[in-house]
Amino acid sequence: MRQWTVLWFVLLAASLFSVTANAERRVALVVGNGTYAGLPSLRNPDKDAIDMAETLQKLGFELVGGKAQINLARLPLLALLRDFAATVRSGDVALFYYAGHGLQVEGVNYMAPVDDRDIRYQEDVPDLAVSLDTLRRHFADRGAAPLIVILDACRDNPLPSRGRSASRGLARLEMGSGTYIAFATAPGASADDGSGRNGRFTAALLQALRKPERRIEDIFIDVVNMVERESGGKQSPWTSSNLRAPFWFSLTEPDSATPERPPRTRPQPQTGGNVIASLPPTPPGRSYLFVDDFNTHASRGNPYGVSFQGSGSEKRAVFKQKSESRIVYPFSEGFPREGTLEIDIRVDRGYSYSNFSLNEDNSCALIFTTDAQGGDVTWPGSAWLTVCKNGDVTFHIAGEKYEAGHKQKYKLQALGTDFRFGEWMRIGVSFGSGGRFIKVNGNIVASDRSQTQRLGGGGTHERSLGQPTIGEATSSFWKNNQHDGGFEGAVRRVWVATSQDGFEKN
Fold first, then answer.
1. What share of the chain is helix, strand, coil (3-state, %, to 5)?
2. How far is Cα 185 from Cα 353, in angstroms, rounded to an integer?
3. What strands lie across the sheet with 383-388, from one edge to the other?
4. Rounded to whole angstroms, what are the CA distances from 155 to 104, 189, 300, 355?
5. Which domains, ranges and CATH numbers included, belong to the chain?
6. Can you say how many angstroms the Cα of residue 195 is from the centroid of all Cα atoms in its chain?
7. How far is the CA of 344 from the CAs of 317, 337, 366, in angstroms?
8. Contact 236, 228 (CB under 8 A)
9. Closest to 268 in 3D by CA, of 259, 260, 256, 278
10. Which pLDDT score, from 0 to 100, does residue 245 have?
11. Lowest mean pLDDT among 31-35, 122-126, 250-254
């Protein structure tokens, strides 16, 4: 087990006296200390801080210093805390994240700077480390404006004492009104490094933060459950809240107004030059025609080059571009030709093929197609669903022979949606007699009732066309084919509902 716990989550806040969250200004200071001169070095804090900083920027936070602050000595850390306090204005959301060694001496919590060579006993800590009370003093006069503190730091003091028994665990941290504080583990316990790039706590937090439209309390409920499950109950994150108003990390609010938070006005997406008004949310009582959630690490489809990881609700199929990974769902095995397909997906990288050459780091990714294993892509019913880094989503189903995607009447497109690479998203499309729409995270962003093509049903060359496929697809027939491609990332669930699902019924 690693000897540090996240001094994590010291800010959160914005005065919600304004009518919407559009007025919120968010400021964060992110620190990761791992390369120590005296204390044992830590493997994860630098990567934890870098990944946290990138995630917070996506959530609208301005970073003090413009990036994560790595391996800070005492004086630079104190200077940054002053800059942080000076940058935050009244009513701003303030967030402080620290990953590294944390120490408690006589009820006071300290962050260990990397120039710690002279810290040999607990009695040395007050003079040579940085007290978290420094942060409390800087933000003492904020009134009800929230402050979030996140600590991934040690709760077992490794230092001996010259005369008294060693302190155990970080002390309870009081930061005043409007504060939310999160620790990587409970008092008196240690936080684990985990087996991947990030520490166990920060890895769970990063995953929870990427889910849209959730309050801070819901995020940390997920974090506690994930960490306890992964550690077999040995590590349990701990939180303390004195917030005066609800806080959402995501920049998109729920669609329906609630007493806690009013809805934000969303930009109207475009489909081929037409402005599509927002449609009602998906109605209850959906009828599912096909579901694949990778139970028992298997799939209802035929996987090629796909690995299955995780357990429970976190089971997922992992796609790697070098292995030409895909999952094929034959119509003969129950995949419908009409319906509403939805995919719970994280796209990390897109790529495409041209003249049998792999183009990596593409700005767009093909995530669904009916061009599986060498089919001819230009027969009626051929389908391609493409997502791009800038939020553009295109769903094309060919309506005639050799229709390669140039005719607008067969192509539905939404520009600048909330779809983002590197984050878990839910993408949905409908096909068949009920008409066509595109959904992102449950919201319809484009629709056209006149586009009624069904999936598949074509192909007269050597192989029959049209097995629906998640992931990479290549054609062995036409070297100039521009539809081939795929993605690197993961999928947690694939399902198809009735074709009318999501449309307003007249």
1. 15, 30, 50
2. 47
3. 302-304, 326-328, 469-471, 364-369, 383-388, 393-397, 411-414
4. 8, 6, 45, 57
5. 6-241 (3.40.50.1460), 274-497 (2.60.120.200)
6. 19
7. 11, 20, 15
8. yes
9. 278
10. 77
11. 250-254
Tell me the C-alpha distance between 318 and 299, whole Å: 12
Helices and strands in the chain: count of H runs, count of E runs: 6, 29
Q: Which amino acid, 130? A: V
Q: And the tokens for 403?
A: 């229709």
Record the pTM.
0.49
Q: What is the pLDDT of residues 61-88, one digit of tens each?
A: 999 999 999 999 999 999 999 999 999 9
Instruction: Read off the pLDDT band of 23 (50, 70, 90).
Output: very low
Give pLDDT tens digits for 150-208.
Answer: 999 864 555 656 555 445 445 455 556 788 889 888 765 666 666 678 989 999 999 99
Nearest to 111 by CA among 84, 71, 161, 146: 71
In sign, the C-alpha dihedral spanning 200, 202, 205, 207 is negative
Place of tokens 């790529």: 351
Contact yes or no for 120/103 (Cβ under 8 A)? no
Q: List 495's β-bridge partners, or say none.
A: 291, 342
Tell me which residue of 374, 401, 397, 372 sits closest to 385, measured CA to CA.
397
Pick from 372, 374, 306, 381: nearest CA to 345: 306
Q: Taking a C-beta distance cutoff of 8 angstroms, is the pair 351, 361 a contact? A: yes
Structure tokens at 148: 């979030």
The C-alpha R_g of the chain, in whole angstroms, comes to 26
Torsion of CA 222, 227, 230, 232, to 10 degrees: -120
With a CB cutoff of 8 Å and minimum separation 6, the contacts of 370 are 381, 382, 383, 455, 456, 465, 466, 467, 468, 469
Beta bridge partners of 473: 485
Report which residue type is found at 264. Answer: R
Phi, psi of 58 (to 5 degrees): -65, -25
pLDDT digits (tens, 9 = 90+) for 477-492: 444 445 567 899 999 9
